[in-house]
Amino acid sequence: MSTDTVTPGAAAPVRATPATSKAVARREGWRRRAPLLPALIFAIIATQIPFLVTVWYSLNSWNLVNPGSERFVGLSNYADVFTDRVFRQAAVNTVLITGGCVLIAMLLGIGVALLLDRRFLGRSVVRTLMITPFLVMPVASALIWQTSMLDPVFGIVNFVIGTVGFEPVDWASSYPLVAVIGALVWQWTPFMTLLVLAGLQSQGRDVLEAAQVDGAGALRTFRSITLPHLRRYIELGVLLGAIYVVNTFDQIYILTQGGPGTASTNLPFYIYQRAFLGFDIGQAAAMGVVVVIGTIVVATLALRLLFRTFSEER
User: Fold this and answer.
1) Angle between helices 231-245 and 281-313 (to 10 degrees)
2) Which of 241, 246, 223, 220 is nearest to 306 (CA)?
3) What is the pTM of this model?
4) 278-282-286-289 Cα dihedral, nearest 10 degrees
5) Which of 258, 99, 106 is nearest to 197 (CA)?
6) I need a surface site. Which of 196, 216, 254, 283 has the fewest CB within 10 A?
């Protein structure tokens, strides 16, 4: 049996206690977070303070064309928001535009990614060209679709459908939601393609080769192996796409101006109309707060689903 010996004059070893371990871990945590504090403080100042001001405006009745009309009305603006027929129509249009764009862009993205995952001459050039629409500014993209693609007289879309015997269509007036969704799909398909392509690149080739050896066809391999592997990439693309597309303003403003009537008006465009055309700051602020809260709820549920998927993969 051995015994610990302590040299005379030497300091006794200090044993770590749970309290000292927690203190060390706390100091280490703050040391790692310290470089991020300036960015966090700036983000709070740039986002949360304006949001609190918006909440205050939403509790007041204030029209900019009536000086001195500002007065506290409590939750009256929120009650008016939920009884506003145009607001409900704009909410439905927002869901249709967001859901239609994200779903179609994801399906096209999966198809294009499968093609770009194959080896062929000039693949690098094609991949680079594929992301070009996503790099175009939204206003420029909307102008391209307004003047070059959907123009009722000189548009490329009408020229193409005219070659098969269809009459020219004024898309922005007759099918405004289709026009807006088409422009958004063109811009967001490259983003979905890149995400899905990243998932395909991370897939083990040995698994695919084993499936081929076992006699599985291309469709069976995609359905049973590739698609489950791409699940988290698809969910991430749908989540990010929905968060960005729900804020669409440029395409609607350029292509349809929210019309005809309110046929293509979404929530951001309707809030813009109430604030800068109707000058009703209180109502517009209340609508903005409602939209932010709704977006946070939906995004939180989607993030939980996404994190659960990543946990299952581990």
Assistant:
1) 170
2) 241
3) 0.84
4) 100
5) 106
6) 216
Joined together, the tokens standing for residue 35 give 């470089």
- Reference 93, options 101, 81, 103; nearest CA is 101
Q: Give the model confidence (pLDDT) of 259-296 as tens digits.
A: 888 899 999 999 999 999 889 999 999 999 999 998 88
Separation between Cα atoms, residue 192 and residue 105, nearest integer Å? 7
**How many angstroms separate the CA atoms of 188 and 195, rounded?**
11
DSSP states of the chain? -------TTSPPPPPPPHHHHHHHHHHHHHHHHGGGHHHHHHHIIIIIHHHHHHHHHHTEE-BTTSTT--EE-TTHHHHHHHT-HHHHHHHHHHHHHHHHHHHHHHHHHHHHHHHHTS--TTHHHHHHHHTHHHHS-HHHHHHHIIIIIS-TTT-HHHHHHHTTTPPP--HHHH-HHHHHHHHHHHHHHHHHHHHHHHHHHTS-HHHHHHHHHTT--HHHHIIIIIHHHTHHHHHHHHHHHHHHHTT--HHHHHHTTT-STTTT--HHHHHHIIIIIS-BHHHHHHHHHHHHHHHHHHHHHHHHHHHHHHHHH-
Look-up: residue for tokens 């070059």? 148
- 83-313: CATH superfamily: MetI-like (1.10.3720.10)
Condensed to tens digits (0 to 9), the pLDDT of residues 162-194 reads 998 889 999 999 999 999 999 999 999 999 999
Closest CA to 91 of 291, 242, 296: 291
User: Strand 71-72 and strand 60-61: pairing?
Assistant: antiparallel
